[in-house]
Amino acid sequence: MTTSGIPGGAQAGTPGAAPAAQPLLDLQRLVVAVRRRRRFWLSCALLGLLAGAAVAVLVPSPPTATAKLLVAHQADQANDAGTLIRTDVAVLETTRIAGAALQALHSDQRPEDFLKDYTGSGLTNNVLQITVQASSAAEAVARAGALADAFIADHVRRMKDAAGAQAQALVDQRDQARAELSKVDAAIADATSRGSRTTPGDLEALYARRAELTSQISDFGRRADEARIGTPQVAAGTQIVDAPRLQRRSLARAGATDAGIGLALGLVMGLAVTAVGTVVRDRPLLRREIAANLGASVIAQLPAARRGLALPWRRSRARDERRRAAATLARAVRGFPGAGGMAGSVSVLELGCARTAAALAMDLAEQLALDGPVVVVDDLPGRDLGRLGRGPERPIRMVDGGELSPGHPADHRERQVGVGSVAPGTAWTDLGHLGAETLLVVRAGHGSTAWLHTVARQLADLRIPVIGVVLVDPDPRDRTDGTLWDELHIALRGRAARRPAAPRLAERPAERPAGSPAEIATELPTVKFAPVRATDVEVS
User: Fold this and answer.
1) What is the pTM of this model?
2) How many angstroms separate the Cα of 392 from the Cα of each of 253, 355, 370, 376, 396?
3) pLDDT digits (tens, 9 = 90+) for 182-229
4) CB under 8 Å to 46, separation ≥6 — which residues?
């Protein structure tokens, strides 16, 4: 979530660009934050990997036994889409089958609880696999065999019951046909006894009906016999084709599977926590955001101080970059010497990078010491600056911030470099004694948007101009512009008003633009001169 307000109305962007509405979710900042916190989510992924491997070793899966059954169906068809085998799986996972298996095992476990320990799966249209877990290998094999036997017995019984019901229905229909045939035979006999009083058409219809009933009785009998014959085929076809056996358990495979699952879960959780934390904490990371929220341009950037032991060439490269930045800052300080009782004084205020700010302040003091004596006022909460003290041969004098009395400033012949902090808990009224102007050394992603606004507001209330911002630990892929373009005097925070007046050409009074002198002095960072005409130039 990005900020919508900017101190002083300054914006970072291209010249003349109008302020744009800030989006609720800045994807660029989100990507940068996730990339910067890669140690966190990579650590989460590694932790998940180790946790998964530890679970595979410390909490091994229980012994598992499997059995495969060949299930014959009376309505088997080649084009069946697996409906019958899915029905068998559903029947297997019922309390009736579980109870029958437990009864065969003489176990007092509840069938509802036993259902959680085994599963069924259809491998083909006629092959059913039973997988059972138990506390021991022998128990798992026994339970798999009991389940297989219980299912076969239930399946055969159901097929027999279905075949018997079908055969009985056919027998009933045959008996009804025989009863009707008896009535037809009686009607034919009666018609024959009456002789000529019976019409030939009626007698012919009775003979046709008798023939039809005779055919139906024969068909019903044949079909009933076939129904009874089909049951032994189903019973013989349903059998155990793979006896219950214990599955081979590979610790390496189980560890690799659990470790992979833990790695994926840890990575997802780490990325999610990082993304949510980035949105909730709202800590600017990009140069444009930090410049806009502090109301000052980013004029230099430095890598972060490495923790622990660093390689010699990396340490040397970081030192060279810091000294190069210090030389740039020294040129900026020399160009604007300031005025008043604190003439030539500048402060270095850190936010989240005390060690880097202390080293940068000492390098800046060394650069300024080439022009004359320099006093460094140490007002850092820690002892970072005291560890970097220079030898007595250098024209740099170290003073503790508590020893500097507001009523007795340092010698005006010395240029003062004050080092302090703008972290939460800062005594804002003491910052004015460290320097008339300040350089902010800010670590990217350390301060929230609200706190950067607070720093800019407090410095503006104390009338301490911000020369610029030194960004520490920037994102190497950050291509945003950290320069404030709108209103140059805001970017310089009033330094243009105190710049020494430039000599005027040919002692001619400059033509001033419209507006009062006060407005010109505060609004324009440069001095405008009147155009020189040829008649005004004295030719010698």
Assistant:
1) 0.59
2) 67, 22, 15, 13, 8
3) 888 888 888 777 765 667 777 788 888 888 888 888 888 888 887 777
4) 263, 266
Q: Is 434:420 a contact under the CB 8 Å cutoff?
A: yes
Measure the CA–CA gap between 90 and 59, rounded to whole angstroms.
Answer: 30
**Domain covering 64-248, topology:** Bacterial polysaccharide co-polymerase-like (3.30.1890)
CA atoms within 13 A on the CB side of 242: 14
In angstroms, the Cα distances linking 298 to 95, 435, 464, 484 are 73, 20, 17, 9
Classify domain 283-498 by CATH number.
3.40.50
Nearest CA to 164 out of 217, 230, 77 is that of 230
Alpha helices in 437-510 (DSSP H): 449-461, 488-492
Residue 118: count of CB within 10 angstroms of its CB: 23
* d(C-alpha 365, C-alpha 373), whole Å: 9
Q: Flag whether pLDDT at 393 surpasses 60.
A: no
Task: Enumerate the domain spans of the chain.
Answer: 38-60+252-278, 64-248, 283-498, 505-536
- The reply to whether 64-248 and 283-498 are identical in fold is no
**How far apart are alpha carbons 354 and 362 in whole angstroms?**
12
- 214's enclosing H/E stretch is helix 200-237
Instruction: List the structure tokens of 86.
Output: 């899915």
